[in-house]
Amino acid sequence: MKKAPLIVIEGIDGAGKTTIAKWLVEWFREKGLEALYTFEPTDSWFVDALKKYSDIRSAELDALTYAADRIVHLRREVIPALENGVIVVMDRYYYSSMAYQGAQGAPVEWVREINRYALEPDIAVYIDVDPETGLSRLKKGVGRRFPEYEKVSLLKKVRSIYLDLVEKGYLLMVDGRKSIDEVKKDVLKLVLSRLSSFSNF
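RESULT FIELD:
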């Protein structure tokens, strides 16, 4: 049984989710709580192998690969941490698969189905920005892990799916166009409002 919350931060490339996720971990630590930052897709051999199949990659292959990577990530790192009372803040989760692979043509509900065994987060926050704003914030050509997804036309579809997930109640939305301090404040307010059931809050 998990003793700590699982928090997910989502958003398109350049939304600021990594900055916010890492900041949230530091905020918890400053309060004397154990917290872990982690991200998906991970650096597992599943993801490494996927990149070697560039000639036959598809939305379905990407989705299946990321689902397998996710199960390994959960069992090896995330669930043990939660069971030991460590707050886990995830930078992307299965919502990213729904949004990105959905935007590439995979049925969104099918992507959700192949992730049915993924642990449900206690809160999932989506930081919203338009694709043009997001891409303008990225450092061009500096260690980008998945540049193949950094296209305005694709990200418009990704954002549309994210907004649909917000509408359906999967995600809570924060306006990522605000200043970083305002975004931090809005995210923290949402997170703390959902974690009252845990003894440390």
